[in-house]
Prior knowledge:
This protein has helices at about 25-40, 125-140, 150-170, 180-190, and strands spanning about 45, 55-60, 70-80, 85-90, 95-105, 105-110, 120-125. The chain is of the alpha+beta class. Strand 4 and strand 5 (about 95-105) form a beta hairpin. The mean pLDDT is about 90.
Amino acid sequence: MKIVKYPHPALRHKSRDLTMIDKQVRLYAARMLELMYEARGLGLAANQVALPFRLLVMNSTADAQQREHEHVLINPQILDRKGSMEGEEGCLSLPDLYQKVRRARTVTVQAYNLEGHALEITCSDLPSRILQHEIDHLDGVLFIDKMGTIAKLSSRGILRALESDYRRAQERGEIPPDAEILRMLAALEAGAVPPPEPPESPPPPAQGENGQPPPIL
Ligand SMILES: [Zn+2]
């Protein structure tokens, strides 16, 4: 399992709800948490590791020692949005791209945890931004879709570079052709279990404005 980069087709896949929480789902969640911490992200959605499931992990501190901030959410749904805020975001699947995105300030989210218990979370500011960003991923929506016109224009160069990196990796055989990826996603959704893959080393953490890294979600 590894974090896939734009324009990997899994990032545009609208995932269906998980119908059961078994050992495989717990293994996926554990590996996603490892990858998130290694990459110094604050959240990671299953689409970002090419899994077509409504599963996300997050920790608004990015610190694996602060387990009280760690959440694994299954089939999350936004029940309510309040207020508005604008802030800079990054994404582990769109390295080196940081732009301002407007989101609801406060959200109420309903989900299941790994024990299968239903829970309801109401949060604001950074945890709210993370939840909205990750739930968008589960719907195949990326933060580049939510940017204003100027941010979109100024992102074009980085997006083109990511697209050409991706196509070159496919030409080298490092990434399967898109049609094969789509077949794999369909097989996973139908219940097939893939073989485990060795992890790749994470990218170095980026520096944002004022030398402070912006949240990478
Ligand atoms: Zn993201």
